[in-house]
Amino acid sequence: MSQKQMTRAETIEALVLRDGPNCFHPDCGKEFKNEVDITFDHWIPQSKGGTWDIENLRLMHKRCNAIKGDRMPNEDGTLPVLYRELNSSERRAVKHAQRPEVCTKCNSGRSLSEEDVCEFCGSGPMPKTFPQWKKMRSSDCDHDLFWCWACALGFYERPPAILDVLNSSELDE
């Protein structure tokens, strides 16, 4: 007997007798709170050739029916995985989870000079573009006028750079 020949209440009663009083969605299975929450799901979607025959109808919550959509059920009664795009917080969580371990020897390339390679982890210098002070090797630096990595880290005593600016402006006068 098709659903069109039965009332809504008769159809619900027949489906409850056949499938039980719970939502038929494979991931739900909860009881219905009231009759308003009950929807008829076409187990084989109408868009894929399903009909209104009672053999093709299942009772589902409105939300569960919307989640199922027009997916064809698998042979074992499960639904195919619904792939969706991750939201921004989920993408951020994935990005942070994939962070590599930081090399303690070279600080993941941050402590390496331009041509150096870490013996421990094999990484090259990072970032790919260097600040001006890091482009000069310590052995090439006069530690007075120019800045190398050793000057920047304070290994060499240097007067503050502002003094050079102030002294040069006094000379111009």
What would your notes on this structure say?
With 173 residues, the protein is mainly alpha-helical. It folds into 3 domains: 3-68, no CATH class; 85-129, no CATH class; 132-172, no CATH class. It is built from 6 helices and 2 strands. It has helices at 8-19, 62-68, 88-97, 132-135, 149-153, 161-172; strands at 38-42, 57-61. Strands 1-2 form a two-stranded antiparallel ribbon. The N and C termini lie far apart (105 Å).
Q: What are the defining features of this structure?
A:
two-stranded antiparallel sheet, mainly alpha, 173 residues, 6 helices, 3 domains, 29% helix
Radius of gyration: 35 Å
Strand line-up of the largest beta sheet: 1-2
Mean pLDDT: 80
Quaternary class: single chain
How far apart, in Å, are the first and last alpha carbons? 105 Å
The best one-word shape is: rod-shaped
Count of helical regions: 6
Helices and strands, in N-to-C order? HEEHHHHH
How would you classify the helix and strand content by structural class?
mainly alpha
Strand composition percent: 5-15%
| Uncertain spans | none
Main pleated sheet: 2 strands, antiparallel
Number of strands: 2
Please give the domain count. Answer: 3
Helicity, as a percent range: 25-40%
Quick overview of this protein structure:
By secondary structure, the chain is mainly α. Helix content is 29%, strand content 6%.
